[in-house]
């Protein structure tokens, strides 16, 4: 028996999945990592919706969780915990299988990840303007970063519309978008936020020389250098391209996980919001407090979030804060509690 443990603010749910059940989830070599991510997100959302908790997927001993509980939980306040039925589980698994797809279908998990990779959203030194709406610089030296970010967000918005999300919001063309579903009248919201850019350092000369194309040649000798990093392909059951792990792949997987949940028609008593942002590595910096305050009618702004996306969401557009949130980033199962 494989123990799978979810930690949240109010309770600890310990699930036991048999090896056969795990095998049913992870049916294909290509989708091995993707299935793990999708099912982690599904379970995290299901339990976050009902328990209002922040999830972390970890296999381990209960004693370690008891220590974490004492450290993080000041008040034990049980919430009714919704458990999916075997029929609902079967439906969710079927939805995952149906939406996995391949590179020939851009409105599928694999095809969507490949499309995200094909957009060069890597940051190359753009800087944020000091005036509203604080656009990112767009010039030859940063390979027209503003245009490139705008293009990937426009595609992500079209994809979200095609997937049928009832709420799709974008405040500025060069900044994040989010989708939302669940109970539209619920006063509370659970959120996942990830970024569609890839590490800037993946484009150093040393890294570019390591890229292999489907011809199996590497670097300058390859038929696809220097653009192989944004030319995704599948070989031997693996999807190749920059950002497939950090972080276009997990970001798009989160979006499709939300689609699976939405289509499953499970009862929900909260809203679920998926934020697709544009920056982590080599971000454009954040405008100063003084510059931010110049456009605000209500000057409550007292801090400067570290990441540009956090600043744009929280300070520029003063969006709603979630009761629980996580980031699907790189190959980490989940990241919770990012500061600011």
List the helices and strands and how they pair.
Blueprint: E1 2-7, E2 12-17, H1 19-25, H2 32-51, E3 57-58, H3 62-72, H4 86-100, H5 109-118, H6 145-163, E4 167-170, E5 177-182, E6 189-195, H7 205-208, E7 233-235, E8 238-240, H8 248-264, E9 271-277, H9 289-293, H10 308-316, E10 324-326
Parallel strand pairs: 6-9, 6-10
Antiparallel strand pairs: 1-2, 1-3, 4-5, 5-9, 7-8
Helix pairs in contact: 2-8, 4-8, 5-8
What is the tally of helical segments? Answer: 10
Distance between the termini: 38 Å
Query: How big is the Rg?
Result: 21 Å
Order of helices and strands: EEHHEHHHHEEEHEEHEHHE
Large-scale geometry: flat
User: Quaternary status of these chains?
Assistant: single chain
Strand element count: 10
Beta-strand percent range: 5-15%
Total domain count: 1
User: What structural class do the secondary elements suggest?
Assistant: alpha+beta
Helical amount among residues, as a percent range?
Answer: 25-40%
Mean of residue pLDDT values: 75
Please give the largest β-sheet: 5 strands, mixed
Spatially, the strands of the biggest sheet line up as 4-5-9-6-10
